[in-house]
Write a structure and sequence with these properties.
about 300 residues, Jelly Rolls, five-stranded antiparallel beta sheet, four-stranded antiparallel beta sheet, 11 strands, about 15% strand
Amino acid sequence: MNTELRENKIHGTSAYPYTQYFVGPVRHQFQYPVHWHEEIEIIYVKEGNLDLYIDGQSFVGRAGEVFFVNSKELHYMGSEDGMVQYCTMLFPLTFISFLSEDALEIKLMRPLRMGTQQFPRVITDKTMQKRLVEILERMIALNHEMKNSNQFETRILLLQMMQIMYTEGCFRENKRTKTNTFEKKLLAYIQAHYTEKMSLTELGNRFHMSGKYLSRYFKEHFSITFIQYVQHLRLVYAKELLLGTDLSVLEVALQAGFSSVNYFNRLFKEVYQTSPLQYKKEQLQQEKEGLKLDGERKSLHGN
C-alpha cells in the first residue's frame, strides 16, 4: 500500500500521458478528498460553484473560472449541493517540455519542472478567462475519445495556453520550498494504515497532540472529518478488491478495514447507491460488453 498521499489512479498512458475527466451534476453533496499527484491539473468550472482547497488556500470556483494545481500540491474539490459541473485535465510537464537549451526551456519549462516557478492558483481576469476557456473547450472536445493521434494538437493547445499566461506574467516564483510537511506526514500515515484499527487518540499520540485537537485540525484543514476520510480510503480499496479479486463480500469488508460486513454493506450502498455485490456484477457486465464491442469493431475493420 502506498505510503504517500499520492493518488493511485493512473492518468493517461505511457504512450499518451494526458487525461481529462468531467464531473457533475451529481445532485448531492460530495467531496473528492485531499490528495496529490505528480501531474499538473487544470480545473475548469463550467456551471455552479466548486469548493476547492489547493496547498493551504481555499477557493469557491464559479462558472468560467480556471484553476491550476501544481505538481505534488495537496488539494481537494467538493460541492455542498452537487449541482456543479467541472472538467479536470491532467498531464506531466514533460509532456510539453523541450530538450533544447533555448530561452523558453531555461526561463520557464525547467523552473516549472524543478518547482521554483509555479502555475497561478486561479485565473479570474475575464478577458484571459475567455481566451483560456476557448482553448480548453477545444481540447476537451478533441479528447472526447482518447486517441494517440490527438497528441500533436493537444500539446499545441496546452502551449498556446502557456504562451498567453507567460505573456501576461501569470507564472509566479515558488517561495515555499517545503509546504504542508505536517499535513503530508499525517495523511501519508493514515493512508499506510487505514485498513488497520485506528483511532484519533492513537493518531494524536503518534503526532504528539490530543485526539480532540487533531479532530478539529482535520476538519478545519480538509473540510472532511477523520472518520469520513478513513471511510473513503476503505471504500475505494474495497472497490478495487471487488473488481480485482474473487474474495467474498465479507472478506473484502474485513480486508479493507471494516469491522462488520453489515456496516460495510450499509455504507457502500449509502455512498454508491448500490450494494457491493450488485456493483461488482454491473461493472463486470459493462467490462464484458465493452470487450465484446471492441471485438466487433475489430472484425468490422478486418483486424
